[in-house]
Design brief:
The protein is mostly helical. It folds into 2 domains: 86 residues, RNA polymerase sigma factor, region 2, helix turn helix motif (Rna Polymerase Sigma Factor, Chain: A), CATH 1.10.1740; 86 residues, Orthogonal Bundle (Arc Repressor Mutant, subunit A), CATH 1.10.10. Helix content is 81%, strand content 0%. The chain is built from 9 helices and no strands. Helix 2 packs across helix 4, helix 5 packs across helix 9 and helix 6 crosses helix 9. It is elongated, with a radius of gyration of 23 Å. The termini are far apart.
Length: 197
């Protein structure tokens, strides 16, 4: 980036900080191509680069007043992108760990589960668990996902949703009981289908 480009960037950032939407649009069009290329390289498989890109620029607009015009804007932009990618990976690993733990619990509780798990693709089990989570009552689903998928503690969830930690505990216990019952039925059905072939 030459001296004139740096001056243009600094002026655009100053206008962005002042809330000019046209400056924001110009910054978006100047930087989105390279940033999307970066996201396509580093995002885990299955993540939508376009959605993440929109979130990054939304964050830029929301935090525009705190951007320093003298700093390299693209460095700032890529720092947001990297943090977002790390957060996505952290949530994905947490979710994967939870799903593996749930499968392990089902295995311990259901004597037919070992044979069934050997037959059913892990991805099919994962899909079924996620479907069942989405069918939980709304409040229970929100609490459950915040804990088991996003990794928030009971205290953090209670503060975020303005409810007691006891309520959080109760909702998670009820969600787990419901999921275990549903998954046992699913695994039993899969075993029955296998044996009747």
């Amino acid at each position: 980036m030459g001296p004139s480009d740096k001056n243009i960037e600094r002026e655009l950032v100053n206008q962005l900080r002042a809330g000019y939407e046209m400056a924001f649009e110009l910054i978006f069009h100047r930087t989105k191509g390279r940033l999307k290329g970066f996201l396509l390289k580093v995002l885990p498989h299955g993540e939508d680069a376009e959605s993440v890109l929109q979130e990054i620029y939304l964050k830029v607009w929301t935090n525009r007043k705190s951007i320093k015009a003298d700093n390299n804007f693209e460095t700032y932009l890529y720092a947001i992108a990297r943090n977002m990618v790390i957060d996505i990976m952290r949530k994905r690993l947490h979710k994967q760990k939870y799903l593996e733990e749930l499968c392990s619990q089902l295995h311990e509780e259901n004597e037919n589960c070992l044979d069934t798990l050997a037959m059913v693709e892990y991805s099919e089990l994962e899909q079924k668990i996620l479907e069942l989570i989405e069918k939980l009552p709304e409040k229970r689903r929100v609490v459950f996902k915040l804990n088991k998928i996003d990794g928030l503690t009971y205290k953090q969830i209670a503060e975020k949703l303005n409810i007691s930690e006891n309520t959080v505990d109760s909702q998670i216990r009820n969600a787990l009981a419901s999921l275990r019952t549903e998954m046992k039925q699913f695994l039993s059905l899969m075993l029955w289908m296998y044996l009747s072939n």
